């Protein structure tokens, strides 16, 4: 297959679109923190998944009539993993900062090659081992308590979230290639919504929404973190390269930490900055195809 040639102006627009997605998703960590002042994590997820499903179903009602058994099966598996990941992340966010949560969640990029290795029995290569080692150092810097060297409860839950997201990515790659993406999204959000409503009714008190601010944050989580960025990401990735997109999306964790520090008064220590920097570098190393990049640079110099 011939290498795709990108128009520089269109690529710049695509890059800007992807960066906007990263910003919107980065702010979602702070939005989640704010909403959980008024309701439990399961109620938050119940509202988010329910309104996301209604939004997507309202825009594509014909897809509901064309659901197949395979759509329900694949969407159910993907949805179960999404539910586990989002529940662990949201509950964990009650016990850690937005920056730590965002950077630990982003570690799924480094975990994916090892999940694939377990499934295919093929080594992920030397680069994956180096990246994982750097990532572990970074996680140690931001999560381990200097007194008892234990990992915090929130960080532990968030690490489970990263593992669930990594497994979900591999499952999507293997099971969802021939399925309609929006149809699967409807199935997974519907499944997650039902599960969260049931769980919230059993384990959490009814939400106390006494401020319009929480309504605004919830609307942001549904629209600003679902409809707008998903559509924008698809359009933007038609204009720019996958390498550009994957690298720019890493900025989600940087935006999340920045918002937490500026608006939520979360602390920034030198050890936290070092740990996040190491994780950022490990993800960048995982995403970059160094061999192809080296060849491209040599061609440009020739």
Can you offer a commentary on this structure?
There is one protein chain. The protein has 302 residues and is an all-alpha fold. It has one domain. The chain is 78% helix and 0% strand. The protein is built from 14 helices and no strands. Helix 2 packs antiparallel against helix 9 and helix 5 packs antiparallel against helix 12. The longest helix has 28 residues.
Write the layout of secondary structure elements.
Layout: H1 8-35, H2 41-59, H3 62-65, H4 69-92, H5 98-105, H6 108-120, H7 126-143, H8 153-175, H9 181-203, H10 212-237, H11 242-249, H12 251-263, H13 270-287, H14 290-301
Helix pairs in contact: 1-5, 1-10, 1-11, 1-12, 2-9, 2-10, 4-8, 4-9, 5-8, 5-12, 5-13, 6-7, 6-8, 7-13
Number of helices: 14
The average pLDDT is 84
Given helix and strand content, the structural type is mainly alpha
Number of spatially distinct domains: 1
Number of strands: 0
Beta fraction = under 5%
Please write the string of helix (H) and strand (E) elements.
Answer: HHHHHHHHHHHHHH
Gap between N and C termini, in Å?
23 Å
Q: Report helical residue fraction.
A: over 70%
What sort of overall outline do the alpha carbons produce when their principal axes are compared? globular
Instruction: Outline the low-pLDDT stretches.
Output: none
Largest sheet: none
- Rg (CA only): 20 Å
